[in-house]
Amino acid sequence: MTIPESPQDWQTLASQKRAALTALIPPSWTLSPTLLDSLNPKGSALSIPASSGIFTARELLITTSYDATALLTGLQSRYLSAEEVVTAFCKRAAVAHQCVNCLTEIMFEEAIARAREVDKKREAGEEVGRLAGLPVSLKDSFNITGTKTTIGYVSYASNPPASADSALITLLRREGAIFYCKTNLPQTMMTADSHNNLFGRTLNPNNLSLTAGGSTGGEGALLRMCGSVLGIATDIAGSIRIPALCNGVAGFKPTAGRIPFAGKVPPARLGSPSPIAPVIGPLGRSIRDFELFMKTVIDAEPWDVDPNVLAVPWRKVEPVTRPLRFGLIRGHPKRPLHPPVARTLHTAAMSLKKAGHEMVLLDDRIPDLWECAVLAWKFFLLDPQKTPAKFVQASGEPWVPSITTAKFPELKGWEASLDELFDMNVERAKIVARYHDIVIENRLDAIIMPGNQSTAPPHDTYGVAPYTVLANLLNYPAGILPFLTANRRLDQPFMNQVVEYVPPYNPELFEGMPGAVQILGKPMKDEETIEILKVVESVLKKATEEPVKD
Amino acid sequence: MTIPESPQDWQTLASQKRAALTALIPPSWTLSPTLLDSLNPKGSALSIPASSGIFTARELLITTSYDATALLTGLQSRYLSAEEVVTAFCKRAAVAHQCVNCLTEIMFEEAIARAREVDKKREAGEEVGRLAGLPVSLKDSFNITGTKTTIGYVSYASNPPASADSALITLLRREGAIFYCKTNLPQTMMTADSHNNLFGRTLNPNNLSLTAGGSTGGEGALLRMCGSVLGIATDIAGSIRIPALCNGVAGFKPTAGRIPFAGKVPPARLGSPSPIAPVIGPLGRSIRDFELFMKTVIDAEPWDVDPNVLAVPWRKVEPVTRPLRFGLIRGHPKRPLHPPVARTLHTAAMSLKKAGHEMVLLDDRIPDLWECAVLAWKFFLLDPQKTPAKFVQASGEPWVPSITTAKFPELKGWEASLDELFDMNVERAKIVARYHDIVIENRLDAIIMPGNQSTAPPHDTYGVAPYTVLANLLNYPAGILPFLTANRRLDQPFMNQVVEYVPPYNPELFEGMPGAVQILGKPMKDEETIEILKVVESVLKKATEEPVKD
Fold first, then answer.
1. pTM for the whole thing?
2. Which residues are responsible for catalysis (chains A, B) (predicted)?
3. How many angstroms separate the Cα of B384 from the Cα of each of A76, A383, A456, B76?
4. How far apart are CA B494 and CA B488, in angstroms?
5. Is residue A314 part of a domain?
6. Could you confirm whether B52 is annotated as catalytic?
7. Is B163 labeled as ligand-binding?
8. How many folded domains does chain B comprise?
9. A163: distance to nearest CA of chain B, Å?
10. Which of A253, A271, A304 is the last residue of a domain?
11. Surface-to-core class of residue B488, CB atoms within 10 Å of its CB (0-12 exposed, 13-18 middle, 19+ buried)
């Protein structure tokens, strides 16, 4: 890439970066202008890969019909070659990018070369690692040696490529994972629209006029386009789970301190005294893949590569065979659930009850959800230097529109102080203690709640994230499972005429959009949470196939 | 206790509190004035119990010849009764208190009644718990239902008795532990002299003119007088380890978050954003007792009673049979090791080498120890409201003298700010990362270093604690093992004529005072650290019996 004549010209920098990215897509993987033109800006892009003529039937099968665990079985048995698997996903990621603008860095060539090496090693009977040949996609904030990490700041575009891998990448690479692309995120990473001035906006594959969510939105959209089978995301307020629920894929945010965070590029100032730590977790197709991810990383003793990882082995826990007790949270009056979300949650709870599990209604017992979210947001606003603004201003780029919508009106003009930080910590401790008591007193195994009040809303209208940030404030592990889709006829009975839906509820617009439920487990009990998620996954799968009558 | 006529009269409040405490010692356990007068204010109190005529031979044996594990074996086999064990320790605690002023609350009657219950239950074949009949002493800051928790603030003297047990007490009680006294600590808990205006000053049983250390100094002195076999302490800068090394007993500070801290009375403002958390740990006679304590507490699933405990089971690890690799830290020029401390450390290192273990000298590779301590102290001074001063001023009591000595001159006039807190966290992260790298690169199992530059110094001269606070800053588990005693003849070769010893080195004064070494393990590897401490304990025991020639 050439250095632009004027470093002030952020538009030039950005267009050069985008052009360089597109140039890494082989011409034979380029969609025809006719096909691209056929994309309805208010419609879906999901059918494009199959109709593009670019994929073989086997490539379509490889990219759509397996989870990571099954792909690895195919690779281990040599029914599949790493080269064909990685090539198929590179191709599909390229096509996804042309439809929804989800990529930030492309490493297709290196990835396919690595895949060939894995195939050779396997053929020679050499040790290849637990994830050998598995294509893994990454949020842009991870460092990959030799690749840039701009995290969407135009001012970062002229930074040199990373000289070392992030700690997690080192571990996954050692196990044979193959990195082939990095994905888009929001300016500052603190909005739920994966939109920045360097790469532009990622669109939702289900409906291009709706948000792909954020901050790991590029990953969410790529997964939904089947351009990836396992994506690595991060979450401090919902950034794993929001793209999962917006796009209709699964996501898992572990307890903080279990997956190594070292060596990532931060969007804000280091050293925050906030008790809410960012967490890395997977986006994908199945809970067993999340277990594979967690177990593989933790078995690799990540505390040896990152001093902030808790030296706590992954425990083997038995699959759940007893009835589970779920606490049920149905929402907050400031953000009433849109009818499709209410129906999804209701149907999930009914299906779990039908399967023998118990529900304990928590709405009236929990600390005010909205106030919890306001408190969490205060922790995100501690930096007196407002460092993210400096990163933005350095290039002259403007703020993206969603920045102004992802704010609490309560915090307008609020400035943090060390004195108030003590009180905030006390307030948080009370909330944590209250949830702890509720869980213990009611012998709860998990909490089921919405991940958001709506499915993916129109661009720049997602706003704040009270339903996801709760698990960050509490440091509880949390998963999103996709379930059902918006259906105006079925959703109609869940319509409440007297509430104000924020963002507005528009049945036509949301028709067919994915639904989801959120499950919170107990802190440090990621192992048990994964088993509980497997139970819910199985119950919801059955409920999708044989709808419950209520 | 009656309410004093003027609540401003702190002296009256304090003398009433002390009189009420003394009144709980049965007359038959009171030392004769002749014996008390015979105590040399610059001499030892260690021989008093045996010469007091108050104890039977069996009581002397019970209080001196067992560790907690052995006592429990005796209790389980019914060779010992809980009643006689608890009575013996109550008696000895009473005598210790009369010599060194170590107690703050006395629960002898309730304790002996509980012991009788344990005996009855055991006789009836009922379940009695893992610690049934074991007397356990406590730092004053723990809450025991029905007993006051004043933590040495005169202003707390009129607080009502605790209405609930601290979380840890609940768990230990469930296992049959018997609480019989609470022990003295410093005003604010932030000095190394266990001296406050409510209870006065605890003296060092080895030499009454020297400090008993702090902040768990009452516990340290009680242990050394054999008035307890297992004491529960807390540590944020060395408060478990300083009394251990001052008095000559063993102590263990675990990793933060493993032992439940909930329901204690804090000496300062809640909600501090400091990354250095206070930690509970045991003082005692053997490492196997510390293992018993850790395993018993963690097996009781303390995360169910305290949301701040990490839900991480106690792991069974194998005893160490291979040669260990120790990093050796020999001190900092600002606080050169007194000759007895230098000789103790040198002899310990040589003994470990002789036993086949390896030493890697770290002095020139580590971040500046003094600067690390200054940083840690900044974290202790974050509260803009200076809450401990309010607790002191509330009663009109003055500051105790050691408060002024336990300060870094570098921090005179320093005021914390939220902005600087970010930078402090970054600085701490660098230090943590550097130690992590040193440990990994050198394949270290543990670090061996002094716990302080001197043995117990004269009252009010302990000053700051750079050698203990390091483990708090890093959140590494750390143990103190007593080893050797000051011996001017043997120490002489370790004398350095060109350094300035702080506090001054006075060979006559320190003669016979206990030595100690400090061992740091890896964070969250408390299980492995205990096994390493067992190895060191065994090597040092052998070295005491058969001195190494160097």
1. 0.97
2. 139 (charge relay system), 215 (charge relay system), 239 (acyl-ester intermediate)
3. 61, 18, 44, 52
4. 10
5. no
6. no
7. no
8. 2
9. 18
10. A304
11. middle
